[in-house]
Each structure stands twice: as C-alpha cells, then as structure tokens.
Amino acid sequence: MKLSRPVSWFLLAFGVWSWVIWITFVKNLWADGSGLAFDDAGDPTGYFWVHLTLAVVSFVLGTVVGFIGLRGVRAIRRTS
Questions:
Q1: pLDDT value of residue 35
Q2: Along the chain (80 residues), what's the average pLDDT of each consecutive run of 10 residues?
Q3: What is the rounded distance in angstroms from the CA atom of residue 70 to the CA atom of residue 77?
Q4: pTM > 0.85
Q5: Sign of the CA dihedral 25, 26, 30, 31?
Q6: Residue 79: predicted pLDDT
Q7: Which residues neighbour 9 within 8 Å (Cβ) at sequence distance 6 or greater?
Q8: Count H helices, E strands: the chain?
Q9: For the chain, does the N or the C end have fewer beta carbons within 10 angstroms?
Q10: What is the CA radius of gyration of the chain?
Q11: Cα separations (Å) of 63 from 19, 43, 55, 70, 77?
C-alpha cells in the first residue's frame, strides 16, 4: 500500500502530537492535587486507573500511527 505525501505527513504529525499530549496528560494526572486521582491516603482512585489506561492505549495507538506515517514519508523520499 502506498500512502500519499499529505497522508504520510498527517500520520507522522498525529504520532508526534500523541506523544506530546498524552505524556503531558500523564504528568498532570500524576501530580493531581484536586483529590480526583488520589484519595486522602495517597492511594490511586478509579479515576486515576481509568485515565491512565486511556492515556497508555492512546499513546500506543498514536505511536503506531506515527510509525506508519514515518514509513510513508521515508518511502516517498526514497522514490523521489
């Protein structure tokens, strides 16, 4: 399957965006002081686990999509 140049760059940009957004989100989740992520004893709550799972899955999917975009960009550069 051959990806076009715009699609390849979009997928690569999406992968980079995923890294930036989800790593920032996990840092903010970990440092949460509102009481949502950790209870009074400092133990993680259900909110923490659900959002951590969401972040990890989204991070992995973003990485895979970005890798596909990177391969597309590299293939286009090789054929040019």
A1: 87
A2: 92 96 95 90 94 96 97 90
A3: 11
A4: no
A5: negative
A6: 84
A7: 69, 73
A8: 2, 0
A9: N
A10: 17
A11: 7, 29, 12, 10, 21
| Exposure class string for 44-72: b at 16+ Cβ within 10 A, else e | eeebbeebbeebeeebeebeebbebbbeb
Distance, CA of 26 to CA of 36 (rounded, Å)? 14
Q: What is the DSSP string of 6-44?
A: HHHHHHHHHHHHHHHHHHHHHHHHHT--SSSSB-TTS-B
One-letter amino acid of 11: L
The CA-based angle 47-52-54, given to 5 degrees, is 100
- Give residue 12's identity as a one-letter amino acid code: L
